[in-house]
Design brief:
Rossmann fold, 2 domains, seven-stranded mixed β-sheet, alpha/beta, 300 residues, globular, four-stranded antiparallel β-sheet, single chain, Alpha-Beta Plaits
Length: 300
Amino acid sequence: MNRMTTASTRKSKDANRERARMLISCPDQPGIVAAVSRFLHEHGANIVQSDQYTMDPEGGMFFIRIEFDLNELERRLDALELDFEEVVAARFNMRWSIARADRKKKLAIFVSKEDHCLLELLWQWQAGDLDADIAMVVSNHNVMRERVESFGIPYHYVPVTAETKAEAEARQLELVSGKVDAIVLARYMQIVSPTFIENYANRIINIHHSFLPAFVGGKPYAQAYDRGVKIIGATAHYVTEELDGGPIIEQDVQRVSHRDNVEDLKRIGRHIERIVLARAVAWHVEDRILVHHNKTVVFN
């Protein structure tokens, strides 16, 4: 890394130290943007980016993402949050959060035997394109230990069988509790329990190897081949108790033909999966996603 790159990186980190991201969802009504903007202005904040969306303008929901700079953010943030709840949020019945831009989210990546999605995240993290810290990789197989540890990331092998699933999940929760902000299922081929999901609601991201809601469950590429589809895809979504039914974050597709067999579909699909999952994870750690019922609003 040359001196110019180092200086640029340091400047970016210094700028982020005073920057925060606000996410808001609430019933739509006049005056929301004015009230939020006025509040931030009166507290000395400078809005640097704002994106908003209204779902069903007549009696629907309003969503907004705001980035703002505030001098001495670390010292003043707690008081700002208390004032915002009292002055603005309660008035408009808001669900809201504020996150500091310089506080990188910590991720745990769960993986089984296939490495393509995991490696994409590791490469993006290593390159600085994924604005997060990968705290650990957890796997029910031991085959990728050497590769993961070569990145300097802890690797935890937790075998899972039908008989030991509850015990394995307890061990996994022990590993991640208090240590990570979100969990990424990078082709982790196990169904997680409702108890596990409850601990990380809207903070577990899964990649499913089909264009949901088509071909839910196991062997979607075989299902797609049997159906003779001309387009295959991948879907990143938050995990809920409904199998492959959680709020969709990102999807992409690629055309295929009658000449492609199941192995061809898998090969083509792996590329789509890795890109779709990496996008979804990046948007999550950058606080760009708002969940409303079983949908997402993504300010990308």
